[in-house]
Amino acid sequence: AIGFTVFAMATTFGPISGGAFNPAVAVRATVLKAFALKNLWVHIGCCFAGGALAAGVLHYANRQDMPVQPSPKT
User: What is the spatial distance between Cα 60 and Cα 36, in angstroms, rounded to a whole number?
Assistant: First the structure.
């Protein structure tokens, strides 16, 4: 499901925006001279920033989680 979603977004919005939804794709497109080298930092930096933001939101949302209790023996 995730792969299909990324494929659908890339085929729908890729030609319009010229965006790459994966840093590896952005690097390859830069090597093939489809993207300008000066714009590569956007593709890589935004992926790391999004990952850091997601980790922060997860940490904030789960800060009061209870520890997992062992299951009772049967």
Answer: 37
